[in-house]
Design a protein that fits this description.
15 strands; 405 residues; 15% strand; alpha/beta; six-stranded parallel sheet; single chain; elongated; Rossmann fold; binds adenosine-5'-diphosphate; binds magnesium ion; 2 domains
Length: 405
């Protein structure tokens, strides 16, 4: 079986950090409310173990992150000061928010730091050079520190300056969150307890082709739900009413289906579905078998018989990875299939790994996140790993020196 990651990467546990100036690329890209306050601080909390570890060992901690998409200019409501306040509250120690991420004022603030101090640089994306992976910008960031730590799993699929540029200049290691994410995905992809199932759903097949192609080589069972089930059903000749079918992906879907049977992987598709005229709350919805989807109706969720079958099958699994909701869970009438799969995984004794922005949102909304083995902090990065590809931000980190023969 092909390896996902061939070389082990150093983490902060492998090196001396005492007294060092450590630049930590964290993912503090929290969702904001309309009034600019923090809507959910999961990502800030996920970054705490690495920050605490470094502070407790006497490092001088220079945090950096992006927030949202300011398009390379200063946007007042996207300053990181409010994130610094929340961090300070959670850590119970001061976190100084700086007004920029490079330049003389930042340099003098860093020069004045003592062991255990924490500063947070300003939103990296106020500079267009961040997304452009500009070498001079990366060098300026690197010049602030003796050591670089990547703990931003959710940004590690991007070749941005703070992710791939800075490590060219410094000793570069993984933080605790990054290491946990990589270890979890690597373990389930390379060495899962079996039976191993993947539940794949969400809006479109085209977003998930890479994941499907890779995962079918590794799982015993593949379960398909969500909007993309329509394309699978259409590929088998079912009428799917007014559901959107990716006609340019029918051949890919047929190839994936054929490959599953060739590999002896069981493929489960919905047998009944919840259909509605529109995907909005308040519209009348009903359950129909997939053989009788009315022409003017759209598939909005898996049906109850399907949910029972999926959950029954998952109960027998020892590893389950889930990406993509089973229906339009944002609308209460179409949330039941997603909720039942989430509840089944929450009760599973085996390993349960949840990846993907919407899937994670759903699990959090159902208050089941704590019951899962691992809820990934990365959307695109999780999909990249599930597709069997390495992350640029991980590739550039220092390798663990292997013992000689
Ligand atoms: P993730 O972010 O977890 O990777 P996706 O982005 O692929 O998941 O898909 C999430 C979206 O898919 C959700 O907004 C959900 O409403 C939508 N979705 C799920 N089922 C359907 C469906 N039957 N029709 C249309 N959209 C759907
Ligand atoms: Mg998504």
């Amino acid at each position: 079986m092909q390896k996902v990651i061939t070389r082990r990467k150093k983490t902060i546990r492998d090196i001396e950090v005492q007294g060092k100036r450590v630049l930590v690329r964290a993912d503090l890209n929290v969702p904001l409310n309309e009034d600019g306050s923090i809507a959910d601080d999961t990502r800030i909390r996920a970054s705490l173990p690495t920050i605490r570890y470094l502070c407790e060992r006497g490092a001088r901690v220079i945090l950096c992150s992006h927030l949202d998409r300011p398009q390379g200019v200063v946007v007042e409501r996207l300053r990181l000061a409010l994130v610094a306040n929340r961090l300070s509250l959670l850590l119970d120690r001061p976190v100084l928010a700086l007004q920029d991420c490079i330049g003389p004022e930042v340099e003098s603030a860093v020069a004045g730091m003592n062991a255990g101090d924490i500063v947070l640089l300003e939103n990296l994306r106020f500079h267009p050079e961040e997304r452009a992976d500009d070498p001079a910008f990366a060098e300026s960031l690197a010049s602030l520190a003796d050591l670089y730590v990547n703990d931003a799993f959710a940004a590690s699929h991007r070749s941005h300056a703070s992710i791939v540029g800075v490590p060219e200049h410094l000793q570069a290691v993984a933080g605790l969150l990054l290491a946990k994410e990589i270890d979890t995905f690597t373990r389930i992809l390379e060495n899962p307890d079996r039976p191993f199932a993947a539940v794949i759903g969400g809006a479109k097949v085209s977003d998930k082709l890479g994941v499907l192609e890779n995962i079918i080589r590794r799982v015993d069972l593949l379960i398909i739900g969500g909007g993309m089930a329509a394309t699978f059903l259409a590929s088998l000749g079912y009428g799917v009413g007014a559901s959107s079918v990716e006609t340019d992906r029918l051949d890919d879907v047929r190839r994936i289906s054929a490959k599953t049977s060739e590999l002896g992987v069981r493929l489960l598709l919905p047998r009944d579905v919840v259909v509605a005229g529109r995907l909005d709350s308040g519209v009348s919805a009903r359950v129909v078998p997939v053989t009788a989807i009315p022409d003017d109706m759209i598939i909005a969720d898996i049906g109850p018989a399907t949910a029972s079958e999926f959950c029954q099958e998952l109960t027998g699994c020892r590893t389950v990875v889930w990406n993509g909701p089973m229906g339009v869970f944002e609308v209460p009438e179409f949330a039941e299939g997603t909720r039942r799969v989430a509840a089944t995984l929450a009760n599973l004794t085996g390993t349960t790994v949840i990846g993907g922005g919407s899937t994670v949102d759903a699990v959090i909304r159902f208050k089941l996140a704590d019951a899962m083995t691992h809820v990934s902090t990365g959307g695109g990065a999780a999909l990249t790993m599930l597709a069997g590809k390495s992350l640029p931000g991980v590739e550039v980190l220092d390798d663990v020196e292997e013992e000689g023969p």
